[in-house]
């Protein structure tokens, strides 16, 4: 079963807000000079912000904010965020991969930015009770 | 020089208790655009059986990120933070974090691998309440990029 794709915009303002909320003030997430100096294409989103957006998708699909039992990702490619009004977008989709011995549902997740995968081996285990309802 | 794998198993003293504030959860939820009422409205969270607002799934990073500094700043490991990239992240939950929780993070080095000139260090943060009851476990794999 494929779950409905979700799209999340990410702007520079979102990175600033996330830095403050999470306590991760690494300058690669807000300082263009610093980011390019260390070899990045420019300011990139916090990996943990991308994971948080995926977490929104997962709890939406599961139908409950407290449904997630296990959640893991590998950050395979950075998410560059241009310095303009629209920023960029992260697209999240998933398919149901199976059921655990405890009866939880395992989701295999895909997250892309501009058509390229930004996460690999992303999966979440959720309590099944309200999935897709 | 590759990171010394003999540090696997090293653990660090528990962090001082982190008091989870209702406004901090709301701030975090707002920052990630999460609008579910259980993150914002205590009554909505109580309807689900929690004492106060609950935190979104990646909120434990607020505790584990701070607790991970014990490893990143360990002078024996001498990690060059300017070369660190976040590789993998995993959370396993016993229950959601709830406003009013006092949380303690205990950090352990679980794996060190050197490959292709890069070092990979996996740390585990056991997040408990102050009585020691488990709340969540966070694993972070950091990649320390080789020079040149």
- Low-pLDDT stretches of chain A are none
Q: Report the largest inter-chain contact.
A: A-B, 32 and 34 residues
N-to-C terminal Cα separation of chain A, in Å?
Answer: 14 Å
The largest sheet of chain A, given as strand count, sense and whether it forms a barrel, is: 6 strands, antiparallel
**Overall pLDDT confidence of chain A:** 95
Please tally the helical runs of chain A, counting DSSP H or I stretches of 4 or more residues: 3
Overall morphology of chain A: elongated
Structural class of chain A: alpha+beta
- The total of helices of chain B stands at 3
Strand content of chain B: 25-35%
Multimerization state = heterodimer
Count of DSSP strands of chain B = 5
C-alpha-based Rg of chain A, rounded? 16 Å
Helix share of residues of chain B?
10-25%
Order of helices and strands of chain B: EHHHEEEE
Average of the residue pLDDT scores of chain B = 94
Assess the beta-strand content of chain A as a share of residues: 35-45%
Description of the molecule:
The complex is a heterodimer of chains A (133) and B (148). Chain A is α+β, with helices and mostly antiparallel strands. Chain A is 25% helix and 36% strand. In chain A, strands 1, 2, 3, 4, 5 and 6 form a six-stranded antiparallel β-sheet that branches. The longest helix of chain A has 16 residues. The two termini of chain A are 14 Å apart. The longest helix of chain B has 13 residues. The two termini of chain B are 13 Å apart. Classes of the chains: A alpha+beta (133), B alpha+beta (148). Chains A and B meet through helix 1, helix 3 and strand 2 of A and helix 1, helix 3 and strand 2 of B. Strand 2 of chain A pairs antiparallel with strand 2 of chain B, so a sheet runs across the interface. Chain A: InterPro entries: Fatty_acid_synthase, HotDog_dom_sf, MaoC-like_dom. Chain A: It comes from Asanoa siamensis. Chain A: Belongs to the enoyl-CoA hydratase/isomerase family. Chain A: This is MaoC family dehydratase.
């Amino acid at each position: 079963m494929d779950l409905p794709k979700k799209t999340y915009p990410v702007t520079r303002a979102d990175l600033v807000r996330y830095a403050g909320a999470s306590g991760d003030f690494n300058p690669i997430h807000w300082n263009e000079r610093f980011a390019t100096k260390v070899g990045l294409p420019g300011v990139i989103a916090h990996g943990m912000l991308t994971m948080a957006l995926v977490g929104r998708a997962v709890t939406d699909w599961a139908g409950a904010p407290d449904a997630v039992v296990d959640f893991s990702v590998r950050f395979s490619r950075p998410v560059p965020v241009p310095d303009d009004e629209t920023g960029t977008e992260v697209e999240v989709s998933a398919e149901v991969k199976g059921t655990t011995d405890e009866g939880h549902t395992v989701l295999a997740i895909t997250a892309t930015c501009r058509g390229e995968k930004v996460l690999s081996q992303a999966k979440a285990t959720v309590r099944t009770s309200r999935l897709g309802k | 020089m590759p990171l010394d794998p003999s540090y696997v198993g090293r653990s660090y003293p528990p962090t001082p208790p982190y008091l989870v504030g209702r406004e901090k959860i709301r701030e975090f939820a707002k920052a990630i655009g999460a609008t579910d009422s259980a993150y914002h409205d205590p009554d909505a969270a109580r309807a689900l059986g929690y004492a106060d607002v609950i935190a979104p799934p990646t909120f434990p990073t607020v505790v584990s990120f701070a607790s991970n500094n014990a490893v990143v700043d360990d002078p024996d490991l001498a990690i060059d933070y300017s070369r660190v990239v976040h590789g993998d992240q995993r959370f396993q939950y016993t229950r959601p974090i709830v406003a009013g929780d006092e949380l303690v993070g205990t950090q352990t080095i679980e794996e060190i691998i050197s490959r292709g000139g890069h070092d990979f260090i996996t740390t585990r943060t056991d997040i408990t309440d102050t009585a020691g009851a488990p709340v969540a476990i966070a694993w972070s794999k950091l990649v320390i990029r080789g020079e040149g």
